[in-house]
Design brief:
Blueprint: H1 20-60, E1 67-71, H2 80-94, E2 102-107, H3 113-124, E3 133-137, H4 153-171, E4 176-179, H5 187-194, E5 197-202, H6 209-216, H7 226-229, H8 232-253, E6 258-261, H9 264-274, E7 280-282, H10 290-293, E8 304-308, H11 317-327, E9 336-341, H12 346-361, E10 368-372, H13 376-385, E11 388-391, H14 400-407, E12 411-415, H15 418-424, E13 434-436, H16 439-451, H17 453-460
Parallel strand pairs: 1-2, 1-4, 2-3, 4-5, 5-6, 6-7, 8-9, 8-11, 9-10, 11-12, 12-13
Helix pairs in contact: 4-5, 6-8, 11-16, 16-17
Length: 463
């Protein structure tokens, strides 16, 4: 046995620890490479936009005039937002500075341009020139529908808006991007990757501090279910969710070049969120009341109550039918209720069917008439014979229908909030209509207006 000593050699690796400085360097390097990748992508997008824009200029023969794009996928909707859209386009087409500019509508409609413009003329009496106007069809526009997202609706719609705006600008970039739909969360991406001037015409803020207050006060309404309102934990989570959305909405506001709002109420909320008074102004929706104001108030009218609003959940048409059912017992036997509105798709059709079922259940189906997607002359004919009009949406941003009801000499009742309160009925020193806060208020005012129309019709006529 050898006496040599045998040594066992074990490799010892030094323990490697990340110190604070190393972590910072890793973060900085990662951030640098990430910024380079984003920068390359942005530069590539801008360059592609430049090439495509030059191609469009040649195609449209608009070398010295800006190409103006209106983002309004629901351009065939037939409601107040669409009326504003086409009135704006008409104004551009007759303006000396912009009349030779090419106008594009980023559209999600399945109808042809000719069908859309024919409906615009029929419903709004707005005639649009076909020359210098093109429709850019968006394949992804259905992703913007709120019904796709039963939970976290605003968040998923925001993400969808970014995707759809990317599609729009990739297909047909523009010099001036005018959003009339409310896709504020997409503004930073549109500006950074494609670089147009951005004009936001805001009908209704996507998120507002009122929404936080609604959740905080445990109020049940169409966007705050009873399950959430009755749970402190769920309400706290939803408040945090809304707060994050408001912060992101604030950031989006920095990328807008010009902001227009449609009412005092909307303007106050947008100033609160975006805080940009120098580039924010109110542009009230266009309301041509000449067709209504010439109606003869001395003509004997029928015992008709009327409402006019697109069939959407927030318009609260179900409340109108309950009001009618409760008011009917003290109205003349021949009284009728005409519900005028537009239907865009199967979701709207489903609302109408639910309303018909409600009328049946309340026993008023014979006195409630649904007037769907009617042309302008039919609406005027109904207004000419009506005595009372109701508008039940809470926080209606402006209220074009309210103005038109009043212009027709109809005793008009609207909710005591937002546009009807601040800009229309409540903005006048003399009484020109009624503002209601509860179902009982509406019932009382409907009965008063219907039974005393001859006196009140002359007194309330404003426009």
């Amino acid at each position: 046995m050898s006496g040599d000593n045998h040594h066992l050699h074990v490799a010892v690796h030094p323990k490697y620890e990340l110190d604070f400085g190393t972590i910072i360097r890793i973060i900085l390097v990662t951030g640098f490479f990430f910024s380079v990748v984003i920068g390359i992508f942005m530069g590539s997008s801008r360059f592609k936009k430049y090439l495509l824009l030059e191609k469009l200029r040649q195609q449209f023969k608009s070398q010295w005039n800006p190409i103006i794009g209106f983002f309004h996928p629901q351009c065939d909707g037939g409601a107040g937002g669409e009326k504003v859209l086409y009135q704006a386009i008409q104004a551009i087409q007759i303006d000396n500075k912009f009349k030779n500019s090419q106008v594009m509508i980023y559209s999600g409609s399945q109808l042809s341009p000719e069908q859309i413009l024919a409906a615009v003329e029929s419903r709004f009496s707005i005639k649009i020139k076909r020359e210098n106007l093109s429709f850019v069809n968006l394949r992804l526009s259905n992703k913007l529908k709120p019904d796709n997202y039963p939970r976290f609706t605003i968040l998923f719609q925001a993400l969808a808006s970014i995707q759809v705006c990317f599609e729009a600008m990739s297909l047909a970039p523009c010099d001036i991007f005018i959003d009339t739909m409310g896709v504020g969360y997409a503004y930073p991406f549109v500006k950074l990757f494609f670089g147009p001037k951005i004009i936001s015409y805001t009908h209704y803020p996507i998120v507002s501090y009122d929404m936080l207050n609604t959740v905080g006060s445990n109020t049940v309404q169409y966007n705050n279910s009873q399950a959430i309102a009755q749970s402190k934990i769920k309400s706290s989570i939803k408040k945090a969710y809304y707060y994050i959305l408001i912060v992101l909405y604030k950031v989006a506001g920095y990328f807008i070049d010009q902001i227009a709002t449609n009412s005092s109420w909307t303007n106050n909320h947008i100033l609160h969120v975006w805080n940009a008074p120098k580039k924010t102004q109110i542009i009230y929706p266009p309301i041509d009341t000449r067709e209504f104001s010439v109606l003869d108030l001395n003509k004997r009218r029928k015992n008709i109550m009327v409402s006019m609003a697109q069939f959407r959940p927030e318009k609260e048409h179900d409340l109108q039918i309950r009001i009618w059912a409760n008011a009917l017992e003290q109205l003349p036997q021949d009284s009728k209720f005409y519900m005028i509105g537009t239907v865009r798709d199967k979701d709207d059709e489903r609302i109408v069917e639910q309303l018909k079922d409600l009328a049946q259940n309340l026993g008023v189906q014979d006195s409630v008439k649904f007037e769907i997607n009617q042309p302008r002359n039919t609406v005027i004919s109904i207004f000419e014979n009506a005595k009372v009009g109701v508008h039940t949406m809470k926080y209606e941003h402006f209220g074009i229908a309210v103005c038109e009801l009043m212009a027709a000499g109809i005793v008009t009742i609207a909710h005591n909030s937002a546009g009807p309160k601040e800009d229309i009925i409540g903005a006048n020193e003399s009484q020109v209509g009624y503002l209601a806060e509860s179902e009982d208020d509406y019932v009382k005012f409907v009965q008063l207006g219907m039974n005393n129309f001859e006196k009140l019709g002359q007194q309330f006529k404003l426009y």
